[in-house]
UniProtKB/TrEMBL annotation:
It holds the Pfam family PBP. It comes from Paraburkholderia silvatlantica. It comes from the Bacteria. Residues 1-35 form the signal peptide. InterPro entries: PEBP, PEBP-like_sf, YbhB_YbcL/LppC-like. Keywords: Signal. This is PBP family phospholipid-binding protein.
Length: 196
């Protein structure tokens, strides 16, 4: 008489294979859960929904800030990301909005930028290129809206599927935005406000 614990020799192999497949399935499920985490951006200088920090304010046109680009850190980037780009856009400016910053060709190995990366030369050392913003300046131009209601500034980090975009330093930020959008695998945003 056989008991539930009696196995034929081939049965043990089948049970082992089934156990191995079950474990592999659990590992795959765990990897999918990690891959499903959202691409995010954060800053030590700014918080989503908060106000622009004093160090990020423009230094002309009636504004008296030091005009330093914010520190940024991004996490959970999409698979197959080959480079990054960053834009800062004032969606409340009259007309079609106002470009404050556009950067492209940030290497995929980079996951953060320090404060003042634009003026300090840190971006150039990485091989990144910066657009001409709507102040007609290459690089970062901080918030400086007309007096009145606060404006919203959308900071976006893009994960791109190319190593470099066919852009040159000093091209208009709107051109950068077009090229960036065409190569984006995903993006992460924070929105901050500033008024005077």
């Amino acid at each position: 008489m056989r008991t539930p614990y009696d196995f034929e020799p081939g049965c043990i192999r089948r049970v082992s294979v089934l156990a191995w497949l079950a474990m592999a399935s659990m590992v795959t499920t765990a990897n999918l859960a990690c891959a499903g985490e959202n691409f995010t951006v954060s800053s030590a200088d700014l918080s989503d929904g908060g106000k622009v920090g004093p160090r990020q304010i423009f230094n002309d046109a009636g504004c008296k800030g030091p005009n330093q680009s914010p520190s940024l850190t991004w996490r959970n980037v999409p698979a197959n990301t080959r480079s990054f780009a960053i834009t800062i856009f004032d969606r409340d400016a009259p007309g079609r909005g106002w470009w404050h910053w556009a950067v492209a060709n940030i290497p995929a190995s980079v996951k953060s930028l320090p404060e003042n990366a634009s003026a300090s030369g840190a971006l150039r050392k990485l091989g990144a290129i910066e657009a001409r913003n709507d102040f007609n300046i290459d690089g970062y131009g901080g918030p400086c809206p007309p007096p009145g209601n606060p404006h919203r500034y959308v900071i976006t980090v893009y994960a791109l599927n190319v190593d470099t975009l066919p852009l040159a330093q000093g091209r208009p930020a709107a051109l950068f935005d077009r090229e960036i959008s065409g190569s984006a695998l995903g993006s992460a945003q924070i929105t901050v406000t500033y008024g005077r």
